[in-house]
Specification:
The protein is an alpha+beta fold. The chain is built from six helices and six strands. It has a four-stranded antiparallel beta sheet, with no helix packed on it. A two-stranded antiparallel sheet has the order 1-2.
Length: 163
């Protein structure tokens, strides 16, 4: 089996980003964390990912500072949720760019409506970006909802990062 090259510390910022985000499942875990998934079982069930792979990816995302573990009590037992940090929330443009690229250059079977952003201020469905296509106003994270028509008929708010 070929050894994976480690790009952390490399001069190229794309190489460093790929070192953190480039493994299979990582971007899908971030996508789900961005829409509010926090618990191990939720990630596993929503993604259909194996426990050992999910454990490894969550550990790497936590170590890289994109997620943080937050304890909670369930049935007298302490467990952990995985919450976005500022660094994890700052990956939103990457996710939105991938969504836009995927809508433009790939096809689903059966065909699906594109993933869109809903701007809360004017209620318009708009393309990913920093400005609303409809009203022209800047869109901050707290002004956006993510519409994924194959997942839910209603747009969902974006999870806020923990400090």
């Amino acid at each position: 089996m070929a050894r994976r090259i480690q790009w952390s510390g490399h001069a190229c910022p794309i190489a460093r980003a790929v070192d953190v985000l480039g493994e299979p499942w990582t971007l899908l875990i971030l996508r789900n964390a961005t829409t509010g998934t926090t618990r191990f079982d939720e990630f596993r069930d929503e993604l259909g990912i194996a426990d050992n792979v999910l454990t490894t990816r969550l550990a790497k995302l936590t170590e890289a500072g994109l997620l943080t573990r937050v304890p909670y009590r369930e049935g007298g037992r302490t467990r952990h949720e995985y919450r976005l940090t500022k660094a994890g929330a700052d990956a939103l443009p990457v996710l939105l760019s991938l969504a836009e690229w995927g809508d433009e250059h790939t096809r689903s079977d059966p065909p699906a409506e594109p993933m869109l952003i809903v701007h809360d201020a004017c209620g318009a469905r708009t393309r990913p970006g920093t400005m609303c296509d409809e009203c022209g106003e800047p869109m901050r994270r707290e002004d956006m909802r993510w519409y994924r028509p194959w997942r839910s008929p209603e747009p969902v708010p974006l999870a806020e990062p923990v400090s």
